[in-house]
Each structure stands twice: as C-alpha cells, then as structure tokens.
Design brief:
This protein is of the alpha/beta class and about 220 residues long. The protein has 11 helices and 8 strands.
C-alpha cells in the first residue's frame, strides 16, 4: 500500500521522506493556507522532496474552470503533480477531459461505492473515499473501503487506485492495508505514530542498558 502524507508543511514532508517510506503527498487549499505558504511554491517545494504523486487541488466549480485550472497547474508545476478534483458532475466531466489528455487525476470527497465507480469510469487515477468523515456522520468508513475494494476486484478495475483519505488513527491505516486499499493519505501526526510501539522502546532501552554493562566490564 502506498503511504502518502497529507500535509503542506515542508518540514513534515522532509522528515517523513527521510525515513525512506514516502510514496506521495496530498495537499488542499486549507492545508496550504494553514502552512502560510504560496500555493505554487509550496507544491514545487514538495515535488522536489518527493518524486511520487503530489495532489494539487483545483478551486473552480464548473467543469471548464476545473479543466482550465488543471491544465494551467500541469503547465507550471513538476511532472509528478496530479490534479485533485471533487466528485461532482462537473468534476467527473473535468476528470474525463484531463484524463483524455494523459493527466493524472485524484477524485476526492468520495463517500459511496457509486461515486467511486463513476470516478473510475471518468478516468481517475485515484479515488479518495473519506472514511473518517463518513464515521463522523454515522457511517462506517472502513466498510466503504472494503466494499470499494471488493467492487474493484469483481469488476476487474485496475487503472484506478483506492486512496483512503480522512485517516484518523493508526488502526485506520492498518485496516486499510488489510482490506485492500491501494494507498492511504495520512496526516503527519498519525504518520509519526506508525513507527511507535511500547515494546520497541523498552526493547531498545534494555539493549542499551546491557551494552553499557558490557562496556563497563571492559568487554567492548
């Protein structure tokens, strides 16, 4: 499963990239506003750190606006940038127009199998179901990921990846991998917790304690 960081903070991207596990980055206008950076400069900086897909979101509402903005972004930004578009009728139309031009699209704000199917039919490279937000509204986000995964297998869909979004916990990440998501976009705070475990910490402490004992006895 691709591990994608959901962040527009350059230091966070640099840190996770230094681990050697970062497959891509997703951004949105809210994240970039919080980071205090310029939109295009931020995307360029991220793309220099991570060679995987970098999602840059459009803000237009009509299909023509989305297509125009998507083409403009692709002409200005690095090759690994893909265009993030909402799952609306206009968004699906724009997705088809961009996909037909060979431009990768991440269809976002997906909350049902039907929406995911439409996005794949429109030519999306990634479809992003929002499991945490669905949970917040009384749904079952992990069940949605599982249902989409089963649908992909039953229908033989291979050109569109399931990118689990709105991740709220390490458990979400683990379960998404278990039930068949191709990728997960993970907030920095959750990403850093993936590597943590109490037994790892206590094991390391014991190792260092034993090593100091060996050194004090003159055996090292």
């Amino acid at each position: 499963m691709e591990l994608i960081l959901d962040s527009a903070v350059i230091k966070e991207v640099e840190e996770i990239a230094s681990w050697g596990v970062l497959d891509g980055v997703t951004t949105n206008p809210t994240l970039i506003r919080r980071s205090g950076g310029d939109f295009e400069e931020t995307i360029r900086s991220i793309a220099m750190i991570c060679s995987g897909p970098i999602s840059a979101e459009v803000t237009g509402m009509s299909s023509s606006e989305m297509v125009k903005e998507g083409l403009d972004l692709k002409s200005k930004l690095p090759e690994n940038v893909i265009i993030k578009i909402p799952c609306t009728p206009a968004g699906l139309s724009a997705t088809r127009s961009l996909a037909d031009r060979g431009i990768g699209v991440n269809v976002t704000l997906v909350f049902s199998v039907a929406q995911a199917l439409l996005a794949s039919k429109a030519g999306a490279s990634y479809v992003s179901p929002f499991l945490g937000r669905l949970d917040d509204n009384g749904g079952d986000g992990l069940s949605l990921i599982k249902d989409i995964s089963e649908t992909w297998k039953n229908q033989g869909i291979t050109g569109c990846k399931i990118l689990a979004a709105s991740i709220r916990s390490v458990h979400h990440v683990e379960m998404c991998a278990k039930i068949g998501a191709h990728a997960a976009t993970i907030p920095y705070g959750i990403f850093t917790k993936l590597v943590e475990h109490d037994l790892t910490n206590t094991g390391l402490e014991k190792f260092l304690e034993d090593w100091e004992a060996v050194r004090s006895e003159g055996r090292a």
